[in-house]
């Protein structure tokens, strides 16, 4: 069993090519007993973004706060609190903060996708 609060979970700066102003928290994964999957919380600050990329694993997203855009397979989708998205494996995608407040979202991936 595992219980915590996002405020108490360590945040790390994402340093990767194409990433701007992004923080990551691993909320639940194998270390907490959820084998094979990882639930992460990302925060993109003002003008922040993930890289435009694709990978073989899918991911499931839930928008917690802020306003942003999901570039998915050539189309842009406006996202806000309560928005959900499924990104199939092998699909080019990017999350971008298009507001001034933090854009925060949950991202669930198979364990091999938590890189």
UniProtKB/TrEMBL annotation:
Keyword Transmembrane: no
An MF annotation (GO) of this entry: metal ion binding
Keyword Metal-binding: yes
UniProt xrefs under InterPro entries: Cupin_2, GPI/OXD, RmlC-like_jellyroll, RmlC_Cupin_sf
Location of the Cupin type-2 domain: 41-109
Coiled-coil ranges per UniProt: none
Keywords: Metal-binding
SUPFAM superfamilies assigned: RmlC-like cupins
Top-level taxon in the UniProt lineage: Bacteria
PANTHER family in alphabetical order: CUPIN TYPE-2 DOMAIN-CONTAINING PROTEIN, OXALATE-BINDING PROTEIN
Name of the protein: Cupin domain-containing protein
Source organism per UniProt: Metallumcola ferriviriculae
């Amino acid at each position: 069993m595992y219980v915590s609060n996002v405020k108490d979970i360590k945040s790390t700066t994402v340093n990767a090519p194409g990433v701007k102003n992004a923080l990551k928290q691993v909320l639940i994964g194998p270390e907490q007993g959820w084998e094979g999957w990882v639930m992460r919380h990302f925060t993109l600050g003002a003008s922040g973004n993930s890289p435009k990329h694709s990978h073989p694993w899918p991911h499931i997203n839930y928008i917690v706060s802020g306003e942003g855009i999901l570039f998915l397979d050539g189309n842009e989708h406006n996202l806000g609190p309560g928005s959900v998205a499924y990104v199939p494996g092998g699909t080019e995608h990017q999350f971008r903060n298009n507001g001034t407040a933090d854009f925060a979202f949950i991202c669930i991936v198979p364990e091999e996708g938590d890189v």
